Every structure is written in C-alpha cells, then in structure tokens.
Amino acid sequence: MDSFLEDYEEAPAVVVGGKRRRRKRSPATQAALHPLLQLPFLPPQPVSSNEHKLNFKKSKEACLSYIQDALLQKQWKRAAEFLTCYVESLEKDYSREHIGPSEMIWRIGTEILWRHSQSRMKEFNCFMEQMKTLGVKRYLKVCLEHVFHLLCNGQIDEAYQNLSLAESWRFGEQTAIQDKEIKLIQAYRGLLDYCSWSKQKKILLEHGEDGFADLAVEQEMHSYFRKAAVNLKEIIKIPGVWDVFVKCYVDLLEFYGEHNEACQVLNEYAYNSKFPANPNAHVYLYQFLKRQGESKKSLISALKILHDIVPSHELMIDFNTMLQKSKKRKKRQLGLEVIFAALDYAGWKENAKAWSCLARQVKQIVITEKHLDWIQQEWNSRKDWWPDFHFSRYLAKRNWQENKSLSHEKALVAGILLGKDCKYFKYVSHQGCKARLKRFRMLKKFVTRHNPVYLRISGPPDCSVQP
User: Fold this and answer.
1) Cα–Cα distance measured from residue 141 to residue 152, given in angstroms and rounded to the nearest whole number
2) Residues 6+ apart with CB under 8 A from 276
3) Which of 394, 428, 397 is nearest to 411 (CA)?
4) Residue pair 446/432 in contact by the 8 Å Cβ criterion
5) Inter-residue contact 371 to 364 (CB < 8 Å)
6) Roughly how many angstroms between the first and final C-alpha of the chain, as a whole number?
7) DSSP secondary structure letters along 355-402
8) What DSSP state is assigned to residue 14?
9) pLDDT score, position 47
C-alpha cells in the first residue's frame, strides 16, 4: 500500500539560534498538503477527455497488477483492499463511458471471498447478488457459481431455490443466447431432485414396513423421479461430458426397470461420435452390462475401447482375466499385451494383482513352450528400460520388505525375461531361500530349469522362437 502514497514534501526551513531547523507542520496542515490515497497515475481531478482515458487505463492496469500479485502470493486481505479500490475508482472515474469489467470483478471477488479467512456466507451471498445485476450476459453463470458455493457449504435448500429462480429468469434476446446455461441450470436442479429421490429410496428400503407410510414415500419418490428424469434427459442429449448426470439418470431408469432405455443412453454416451472421447462412458457401460449379466463378448467389447483410450485403467485386470479365459489365441495374446501395457505405468509398479496376472500367463507359456513369440514381441520394446524401471536391486529390497507376495511374482517375471543372473531375481530368491520359504525355493528351481527360455526370448526376433 505504501507505493500508492505520494512522497512527502519537505516543510520550509527556519533559522533559530543560528541553526537551520525544519518547521513541524500540524496534522491539519499535513492532511491539506497530502491528499487521500490515490492509485498510481490516477489524477484526482479529470482533465481532458483523451488524457483522462490514458491515465485511467494506466491506473487500472497498475491496480490489476497489484491484485494479481496479491492473489499469487495468497494475500487475500491485501487483494480485497486493492479490489475495493479498483471498484471505487471505476465508479468515480469511468462512469461516463459504458465499459463492463464486471466479469473480472466477479471472478476476482469470488476467488477472494472463497479463500479469505474472515469471509462469511452472508457476505458471499450479498456479493453474488450484486454480480447478478452487473451484467445480464453472464447472469446464469453467476447463478451457477452461487449455487456451487451454496452446495459446498451444505445449503441444499437455498441452492435449489436459486436454481428455480434462475430457471425462470427472462431477459429478451439474452434468454435465447444463454440457452445452454439454462439447460445446465435445469440439469443441476434435476440433480438435486435425484438426491431427494435417493434419500426417499433409502428410507423406503430401510424402513418399508408400514404400508401407508410406504405408499406416501413411493408417491414422493415418484414425484422427484419425474422432475429429475425430465431435466437429466435433456442435458445428456447435448454433446459433452455429463458423467454425473448420466450416472444419476441411469440409476433412476434401472430402479424402475427401464433397462433397455438405460442401455440405449449408455451406448449413445459411449459411441456417439459427436460426444468427446470419454473413458468413463465405457466404464459406465461395462458396469451396467456386468450388472445385467450380459455376455463376455459384450463386456470384452466395452473394455477393448477403454483399453485403447486408457491402457492404465484399473479395469485392465478384469479385461486381462476375461481374455485369458478365452479359447481364442488372439484374445489370449491380447491379454498378454494388455497386462504388459498396464505395467508400463508408474502407478502399476507395485500392483500385486497385475504382476500375478503377468506371472501366471508367462509361466504357462514357458511350461508349454508355446507362443514364446508373444513374450518376445512384448519384451523387445521394453528390454531397454524395464530392467531399471521394475527390476533394480533397490526395488528388490523394498518390495521384499513391504510385500513378499509382490516380490515373488515380480521375481518370477524378472527371472524369465532377464535370466537367473537378474539382480532382482537373485536378491529376492536368495532372501526367500534364506528365510526357508518353500515357494521361493520352488521359484529358484523353476527359473534355473527354464533359463534357456530367457536366451530364446532375448535373442533377435523370430530367430529361434517358435510360435
């Protein structure tokens, strides 16, 4: 704030007893000489029109710079002071020309009030109501943000009331321009209706003993269902990412036995090219098909697309398991590809289930000596970086200490892919034998017996590996 103050002018000197001394000014004199706080470059009185505009632009940019600096340093009180000064200067010096910085004030003010330690809901509500009157072009966006804040503070009824008021808002052409925002307002109102429906459903399932009470609850549930379904159905017709609305709508349809419509909604959400690629759409479809007891073919089809989009998704273990149970060679080979691809990601490095899946399939291939080319094909693109990524001595020590089952599965894979001299395998097998654990002794014997397989896998492609 000190940078906003003008430099003090020195008082004239007087001679007293042969010495020059500064004359002290009274507080009233100082106040007269030093005007109230002014923004940099902002003249206290308007001058010419062009000069005023130039000075105001400079002062506005400077003030916004101070606000930005305060926000970046999380100095919310300081940012609030600057914003107040900014708004006051706009009202005083720029009212003659219609320029609306209301969106900037809205966004900055909302951020400050959300973060400020002394901010209260009363102040936030008052601020948002003021922002709604500043510009009709963003009225519904402000309403939505207000609703989100109310929901975050647990004020569900107030949020619903605000949504209802916003939905009934009309302002000439602006109403049509903000059609998408109105759809979103309606969708969130439908979401709150769904929440009310869900509460009634819980009551019905937990305390549904009195027939009269059951009937009243069911009627109230059905009322919420109708209101929620209408609004949720409309929003998911518009291309976009509507995960929460889709899940709620499908839940409503499933409860009332509308399985075909629910399936249609999920298929449209997952496969319609007008919608953006969305992994969750395929997750929801897979989960629905699984709940309905659909065929493995349908489940595999849903997960195949999910694998193409997100090869590190947690459902890849389910995908691998289904593929390994298939009688078709191509699907079993795809299963090996899926689990290798998942383990390429750091989040899977210590996933015991994933390593168990890979160890089981690799072990089966080694025992039968069929399809060693599948392993070689996957290993060729990974042999330069997987040893350090997965099979270092450091990881061997840590895995052994934290999860012996994980270290066992990884040691089996490491021994087959890198041979019996692999650092990871040597450390884990030695510790296991030292602890006299039978499965580790069997692991060491298995890898040693099948060490020639490592030589065949690590050789040039298609050199000595037989399909």
Assistant:
1) 17
2) 239, 240, 241
3) 428
4) no
5) no
6) 77
7) HHHHHHHHHHHHHHT--HHHHHHHHHTTTTTHHHHH--HHHHHHHHHH
8) E
9) 44
Quick one: which of 75, 36, 39, 31 has its CA closest to 57?
A: 39
Tokens of 19: 């010495």
Q: In the predicted model, what is the mean pLDDT of residues 427-451? A: 90
Rounded distance between C-alpha atoms, residue 316 and residue 39, angstroms: 60
Joined tokens for residue 347: 């989040």
The string of pLDDT tens digits covering residues 331-383 is: 999 999 999 999 999 999 999 999 999 999 999 999 988 889 999 999 999 99
| CA distance linking residue 392 with residue 404, whole number of Å | 16
pLDDT at position 14 is 42
Assign 214 to helix, strand or coil. Answer: helix
Q: What is the pTM of this model?
A: 0.75
Nearest to 149, CA basis, from 104, 175, 169, 119: 119
d(CA 128, CA 146): 6
- Residue the block writes with tokens 């001394």: 21
Q: Distance (Å, rounded) from C-alpha 440 to C-alpha 432?
A: 5
Question: Which amino acid belongs to residue 368?
Answer: T
Query: What whole-number distance in Å separates Cα of residue 112 and Cα of residue 68?
Result: 11
